[in-house]
Amino acid sequence: MLVKAVILIGGQQKGTRFRPLSLDVPKPLFSVAGFPIIQHHIEACVQVPDLKEIIILGYYPAQDMSGFVGEMIQLYKISIRYLQEFAPLGTAGGLYHFRDQIRCGNPDYFFVLNGDVCADFPLIEMLDMHKNHRSEKSPVVTLMAAEATRQQSLIYGCIVENKESKTLEHYVEKPSTFISTLINCGVYIFSTEVFQQMASVFQQKQIDYFNVESGTSFEREALYLEKEILMPLAGTGRALVYQTKKWWSQLKTPGAAIYANRHYLQLFRQRRPERLAKGDEPQIIGDVFIHPTANVHPTAVLGPNVSVGAHAVIGPGARIKESIVLSYSRVLDHSLILYSIVGSNSEIGCWTRVEGTPCDPNPDKPFAKMENAPLFNDDGRLNPSITILGCNVTIPSEVIVRNSIVLPHKELTRSYSNEIIL
Ligand code: GDD
Predict the structure, then answer these.
(1) Whose CA is nearest to atom 1 of ligand 1?
(2) Considering the domain boundaries, does residue 316 fall inside one?
(3) What is the CATH number of the domain that holds 135?
(4) Peptide bond connecting 61 to the previous residue in cis, omega within 30 degrees of 0
(5) 406 located within any domain
(6) What is the pLDDT of residues 375-415, one digit of tens each?
(7) Ligand 1, atom 35: nearest CA belongs to which residue?
(8) Ligand 1 pocket: which of 113, 114, 218, 249 to mutate (most atoms within 8 A of CB)
(9) Claim: this prediction has a pTM higher than 0.85
């Protein structure tokens, strides 16, 4: 058997809600729990026996991805390629455009993973379900689904399944009224037969184009997995639903990165405990990742849920909790960092406090997902959120920066609260 995986990463026009963190690094390469977001996808894929190739598909310039891809090949010793779309082709347009690359080597199945979700990916279980189905018709797709709250379900693809046969009965993408609390997680396994369905949707688009002659040429080539492939498959018995109860979340906003950081660290505790820091000097509380090249003073206290990037320096008496400190940053003596992201090459002065507000899912609502809240509320005020320092930000000693967003290359001179510093 031969299996492949495709990770959809979009391009520069996407990921705007992730600013300012996506200003200096493509969002899929932003570091969460010490590793680029899509490295977590790659790690899940390489666990699947018979998975022989990973294709990263997006419209970022190839030079933005080449270093990362080279490192991944070295590390995981598997074929990994970046294929660049000439324009945003939608969630299925790139799959169709590069169908020969995906089909080469004759894979039996291929996974498709949205690059902007994070999860304890149940890929092996999904593959088992897909290939061992018991119905008359062989499935074209098995999609991963999770339970959400009624209100939150509206921002996802909503699924109605046949509970007995586990088939997809009805699918609506981001409905305007309530359909179901079972949502599409953006993780699929397809049989290569899906390309026939894509071909007919594509051909119909070309016919429509010449009849109506609207849109630009790349819109003619764009295809959407959810509306154009999944929706027509609903009710045919050829789409299966794999429901997971494991952790899954979208990663659309910086606040979601803190949440994902915590969960990926927790997964390391179960599966890769050697990646987590231990010890009393510095004092480590709970799950903490420290890059081997970082320099943390023995009197610092870190954790729970902290990641410290490459070559970062954490000074004497510093206290960091629920935060991500990126590479080459310096956190000077006795500073405190809570619920924040410190961009790369930034410096926090001595006795300074950088603090944000957690935006975790409502713990009283079972199945609640992360709210990807907008930056501003209805009164035009900044919603309380984690504090984010872009790259190359300097914060002086003895100030407080609370619930604020600081754009890259700023040198602050005073305290700030609930502000965006442009
Ligand atoms: N290669 C490529 N080209 N990737 C794309 C493109 C494109 O033109 N457009 C989007 N993507 C990637 C994004 O980077 C992301 O990883 C994924 O496809 C889905 O992106 P969105 O179009 O922003 O959809 P969404 O996240 O709002 O909703 C999708 O995911 C939800 C789960 O997170 C849908 O599939 C929903 O049904 C689903 O619930």
Answers:
(1) 58
(2) yes
(3) 3.90.550.10
(4) no
(5) yes
(6) 777 777 778 889 999 999 999 999 999 999 999 999 999 99
(7) 186
(8) 114
(9) yes
